[in-house]
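Hi R.,

As promised on Friday, here is the backbone we talked about, encoded as structure tokens. Could you run it through your design pipeline when you get a chance and send me back a sequence?
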């Protein structure tokens, strides 16, 4: 369990390198990442996430960037992205720092 928590923290740290080009904020602080799950047996890492809006034109870009970041870990053989719409994204999911940077108080 401790290894899973440490791995998840490392993945979330790597995902902070994935910047939403429209907003200039990383996807973790935007609150788009809902979870990371690693199957240690198969090496499949599943990233559960949402988008700010359905039909977001950046979904392919974000998927590619997420896959690139997560596949860099030795433990990972495959990256799967689980795109969900519930719970719906809202600005409350953003970190305090992201809201301040975007001028949302």
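Update: got your reply. Pasting your designed sequence below so it's all in one thread:
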């Amino acid at each position: 369990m401790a290894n899973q928590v440490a791995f998840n923290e490392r993945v979330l740290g790597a995902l902070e390198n994935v910047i939403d080009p429209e907003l200039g904020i990383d996807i973790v602080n935007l609150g788009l990442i809902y979870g990371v799950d690693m199957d240690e047996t198969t090496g499949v890492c599943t990233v559960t996430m949402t988008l700010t809006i359905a039909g977001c034109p950046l979904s392919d870009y974000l998927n590619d960037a997420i896959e690139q970041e997560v596949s860099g870990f030795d433990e990972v053989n495959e990256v799967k992205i689980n795109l969900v719409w519930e719970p719906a994204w809202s600005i409350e999911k953003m970190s305090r720092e992201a809201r301040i940077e975007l001028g949302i108080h």
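One thing I noticed while checking it: The chain has one domain: 1-102.

Thanks again,
M.
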